[in-house]
Amino acid sequence: MAMVYFRLNVFFLLFVAARGVEVTDENNGIPYGVDCSFPIHYKNLRCNGLLPEQESIYETFMEGCYAKYGSKHCDDYENDRIEMNLKQPESMVNYTDTGFKKIKAPTELFQLLKTHFDRNHAKMKEEKWPKGNIYVNHWASPTYMISVEDTEMEGGSLDLKNKVWNAAKPVVEAWTGMELKPTSQYGIRVYTEGAILNPHADRLPLVSSAIVNVAQDVDEDWLLEVYDRNGNAVNVTMEPGDMVLYESGSLIHGRPFPLKGRYYANIFIHFEPTGRPLNFENYDYVEEMDEFFPPYLLPNGGWADEWRRRNPTGWHQASPSAAHVDTLPAFEAAAHNDVKTLQQIAMEDSRSLFAKDRNGWMPIHEAARGGCKEALEFLVDQGVPMNAKTHKNKGVTPLTIAINAHSEDHDAVRYLKEMGAEL
Ligand SMILES: *[C@@H]1O[C@H](CO)[C@@H](O)[C@H](O)[C@H]1NC(C)=O
Ligand SMILES: *[C@@H]1O[C@H](CO)[C@@H](O)[C@H](O)[C@H]1NC(C)=O
Q1: Mutate which of 24, 27, 38, 223 for ligand 1 pocket (most atoms within 8 A of beta carbon)
Q2: 295 C-alpha vs ligand 2 centroid, how far in Å?
Q3: Nearest CA to ligand 2 atom 5
Q4: Prior bond to 294 cis, omega within 30?
Q5: How far apart are the CA of 236 and the centre of ligand 1, in A?
Q6: Is 312 helix (H, G, I), strand (E, B) or coil?
Q7: Domain that holds residue 74
Q8: Are 133 and 210 part of one and the same domain?
Q9: Residue 138 C-alpha to ligand 1 middle, in angstroms?
Q10: Cα R_g (the chain), whole angstroms
Q11: Does the beta carbon of 41 lie inside 6 Å of ligand 2?
Q12: Do residues 22 and 134 share a domain?
């Protein structure tokens, strides 16, 4: 186990070192950190007069919300936003050295989105926001939706949404170096004159993400503001067809300078890491994963308690395969020595053979408990670690489970011993 841990860390170090520094946008102004362009960690600006207009812009922002919803609703949202900004980013595992990168969207992806926008621009619908939601000043500058899955839009369908997932996923995976699972796709959202996007970290599980600018009609660049690893603000500009990759759960991002122009249309595509580094051909990494928290959250971080409160039963993607199949059949088949079904599962999605349930059990533990020699043989053959423990430290191995459930000279126990399995 120690060796696996060591290898994973070496891998990450090499991975980070190989990437170098990715500079996305030059910063022409005087460097500044949070709470300068907009409140981020505290509710008042501390900026030594660097961006004097922003103070009254924020005041107008909050007053607009109060006038529409009353202060209670707005303050609740605003306090939540600030608390998340303070606590969530530092609790996140980062997979890139910069946290963001601007590239060109794949041509196919941009074409899908641009076509959808052009066909349906005239049919866009006003976006409905929950009471007091302060992420965008929609009370002053309404936002509109041209949803890719909205069947009232020409060409809108789940099929289109899936095409967008499929076109974006390999790009974000290549950037983060991690296998990803889709978690949320939102847009196309159309912002209007005066719009401000309140700087925030995305709620989990929106972790590894992309923004594509689909269309814009502006008098000045509408700046995306992010923070580099030194805590300095960076203005990122986008033109139609640009794609900004960002680690949205740890990177604070916003558009604190009001939109000057008619509209700005974006789609947001979010994924969460399954825990498997892309170039891992085996499943050692499963052993590394926490049994309760998702792989991208530090179990000792300041956000862990809050995450637990919001997810009392733990991370349900503990198995990477749960991304697309129900892993239960693998456990059942293993428990009943049903090798035929295991074979089928191996063909369709071999990763569910390596799944862990909430108690840290894998199918191989079920096979051991059931004394299922053939299932054990098959799983070991497939590369499932025969000494996998149910928990990192105090867990038990398949051999221990098999001996406890059966006699020392049971077929399954003998098989495991012959293979050199450990207690
Ligand atoms: C970002 O752009 C705004 C508006 O032009 C400017 O005032 C600010 O100094 C810029 N910030 C950085 C970090 O360059
Ligand atoms: C991840 O990035 C955020 C934002 O830059 C930072 O606060 C946090 O400490 C980083 N996480 C780790 C584990 O370094």
Answers
A1: 223
A2: 14
A3: 229
A4: no
A5: 10
A6: coil
A7: 2-87
A8: yes
A9: 23
A10: 25
A11: no
A12: no
Is 121 found in the same domain as 14?
no
Give the 3-state secondary structure percentages of the chain, helix then strand then coil, rounded to 5.
Answer: 40, 20, 45
Domain identity same for 42 and 110: no
Among 57, 87, 117, the domain-final residue is 87
What are the φ/ψ torsions at residue 101 (nearest 5 degrees)? -165, 135
The conformation of residue 90, written as its DSSP 8-state character, comes to: G
| pLDDT per residue of the chain (423 residues) written in tens, 0 to 9 | 333 333 344 344 334 333 333 343 444 568 999 999 999 999 989 888 899 999 999 999 999 999 999 999 999 999 999 999 999 999 999 999 999 999 999 999 999 999 999 999 999 999 989 899 999 999 999 999 999 999 999 999 999 999 999 999 999 999 999 999 988 899 999 999 999 999 999 999 999 999 999 999 999 999 999 999 889 999 999 999 999 999 999 999 999 999 999 999 999 999 999 888 998 877 777 777 888 899 999 999 999 999 988 877 778 643 333 333 345 788 889 989 999 989 988 887 778 888 887 677 899 999 999 999 999 999 999 989 999 988 776 778 999 999 888 888 899 999 999 999 999
200/187 Cα distance (integer angstroms): 18
Strand extents, DSSP E, 278-380: none
pTM of the model: 0.74
- Tell whether 368 is covered by a domain: yes
Which residue puts its alpha carbon closest to atom 7 of ligand 2?
90
